[in-house]
Amino acid sequence: MFVYGLINSAVLALMALGFNLTFGISGVANFAYGAIYVVGGFITWVFINHLNLPYAVSAILTIVIIGIFGALVYRFIIKRIRGLVISEVIATFGISIILLELLRFIGLIGFKYSLPVFIDGSVEILGVYVDIQRLFIIGLVILVIISLYVFTHHTKTGLAFRGIAQEEHTSLSLGINPDRIASLSMGMGSALGAFAAIVILPLGTITVDSGYDVLINALSVCIVGGLGSTFGVIIASFIIGYAQTITAMYLAPHWTMIVSLFAILVILVIKPSGLLGHQKELEERV
């Protein structure tokens, strides 16, 4: 249980980091995130199976394409309604439905849509055989978190990200363009979603419905941890990841999604801003 709980926690963290990055910088809750995850997996599958591109090239091209798509969504849709929370949710959720139902319409149904693992095989850890692909997920989550820290603390663009996140109006007076930074954050968040898909989807098949599951899991981790808090996302991933593993082990795997939804309800009642969130207007309502 310890090993698979750790792996499940890493999967949830990887799913949530892109959503959290976009919201933490731009304040936009990207409800198209789950659809972007599925589209990223499908594009990679097309590159590999129809264009016969190498796996690594397909993955890099997919991440770049999805990143540009995310930035364009902000530029041409979200920018016009930014700050209108309900409109942002409706717009991004509408994009999500369009993307997912388009994939369903063109026939993304069945078990033939799957991505190859990076390295086939398994190793024994604490008496449990674990796929090497799952170990890759743990390593890559750590790498992504370290990379995000270095980017946001030691690069000019990353410091601009933090400036917008902390005080947008003050950043504007320092010459930082908030729309440009928000567009970049949405592009990077979407690219992280595609990266998560390429790493996680080899464990199963690419399905349309998984887009909704990914969105719910990413939302639950971010809300429990505190929207915009990377450290909160890590803590929440462990809490929900182990809770899901225990539930799957002692009840049934299909109950794991209930865990995510229940975690959202509990944290909204006890601490609406999340474990490490700092949204005072939410705290004042309790």
Description:
By secondary structure, this protein is mostly helical. Helix content is 73%, strand content 3%. It has helices spanning 2-26, 33-49, 55-81, 85-105, 132-154, 156-166, 168-173, 178-200, 210-225, 230-250, 256-270, 280-283; strands spanning 122-125, 128-131. It has a two-stranded antiparallel ribbon with strand order 1-2. Strand 1 (122-125) and strand 2 form a beta hairpin. Helix 2 (33-49) packs parallel to helix 4 (85-105) and helix 3 (55-81) runs antiparallel to helix 8 (178-200). The longest helix has 27 residues, at 55-81. The two termini are 36 Å apart.
Draw up the topology in text.
Elements: H1 2-26, H2 33-49, H3 55-81, H4 85-105, E1 122-125, E2 128-131, H5 132-154, H6 156-166, H7 168-173, H8 178-200, H9 210-225, H10 230-250, H11 256-270, H12 280-283
Antiparallel strand pairs: 1-2
